[in-house]
Amino acid sequence: MVVWMGVTLLIYWAAIRLFRFCNQSPLAHPLITTVVLLAAGLILLSIPIAEYQQSTNLLTWLLGPATVALAIPLRNQLPHVKHYGWRLLPSILVGGLSAPLIAWIILSYAEIDQAIQMSILSKSITTPLAIEVTEILGGYTALAAVFVVITGVMGVLLSDLVFRLTKLDVDEQKGLVLGTIAHAIGTAQGFLQGEKIGAFATLALCINGILTALILPIIFHLLK
Amino acid sequence: MQKSVLLILSFFLLVAFFYLGVWLNNTFALPIPGALSGLVLLFVALLFLRDVPKPLLQVSQLLLRHLSLLFIPTTLYIVVLKESFIEHWPILITALLISTFTSMLLAAIVCKRLPIDNGPE
What we know:
The complex is a heterodimer of chains A (about 220) and B (about 120).
Chain A: H1 3-21, H2 30-44, H3 49-55, H4 57-68, H5 71-76, H6 78-84, H7 89-109, H8 114-120, H9 127-137, H10 141-165, H11 171-193, H12 195-223
Helix pairs in contact in A: 1-2, 7-8, 7-11, 7-12, 9-10, 9-12, 10-11, 11-12
Chain B: H1 2-27, H2 34-47, H3 54-65, H4 67-70, H5 72-75, H6 78-112
Helix pairs in contact in B: 1-2, 1-3
C-alpha cells in the first residue's frame, strides 16, 4: 500500500505548482489543496483512513525531527534576540495567549464538546507543536491541524486591515505580528513581502510555539 | 559524496535530538511535547558554535520548507471527524475569525508601543 505515499507526493507537488501559479495566495495553500483532494479520494473510493495512515507513517514520523529543526532559524535570529531582548516578548505573549483564550471562551460559551474545545487551544502555533500539545490536552489532533491552517489563512487575509487600523508600518513589527498569529503560513507570506518581515515572523513563530507549547500543557496539568 | 554523507549525518543529528527530548520528558514526566525539549536542547547546543554548520542548515531548510507535506496524514483524520466538524462549523469558523482578528489587533497595538525599529545589520 506504498501507493498512497506516491499519490500524496504527486498531489503535493502539483499543489505547489498551483500555489505558485496563484501568486502564493494563502487560499491556494498546498496543504489545503492536497488535503481536499486526498479526502475526496479516500471518501469516494471508501478507503479506510487507517490504511492510508499506515502507508504514510514516515511523513508523520518526520514531524518530530522537523520540529527540532526550528532551533536552526531561531539560532540564526540570535543577533535580533540579543538586540531587542525583552521588547520582543510582550506582543508575542499578548497575541499568543489571547488567540487561544478568546477562541476557547467562545466555544465554551456555545457549550461545544470538551474535546473540540481542547483542539482549538493550539490554533496559533505551528502545526507540529500544535499536534503534540493537542494530544497532551486530550483534543482531536486532526481538528487542531485544520484549525491551525484556517487561522493561518485568516491571519494573512486580515493582516492588511489590522496593519492599516493600527497604522503599523515598521517591517520588524509587522513580521512579529504575522509570525505570532499566523505561524508558518504568515511567515511564508512575510518572506514574500520582504526579507526582514520574514525573519521576524520566523522569530515570533519559534518563540510563540515554544511558549504556548510550554504554558498550555502545564496550566492544564495543574488544573486537573 | 562527502557532502551527502554530511547531510545524512545532519539529519540523524535532528533525529537524535528529537529522541533525546522524548526520553527526557518521559524520564522526568514533563507535560510538554518531546519535540519541544529536543528543539530547546539543540538551540542551546548551537549557542556553543559560532555558526550553524552548513549541512545542518540545508537539511533544516528542506524539512521546514515542506512542513505542510508532513502533516497531511494527520490533517486527513478530518475525514473521520467530519460529523463533529460539519455539525458545528458556523460556531467554529466564528470563533476562529473573532479570535484571530482580535489577537492580531492586540499584538499589533502592543507592538506599536514598544521601541522596535532598525535592528543590527
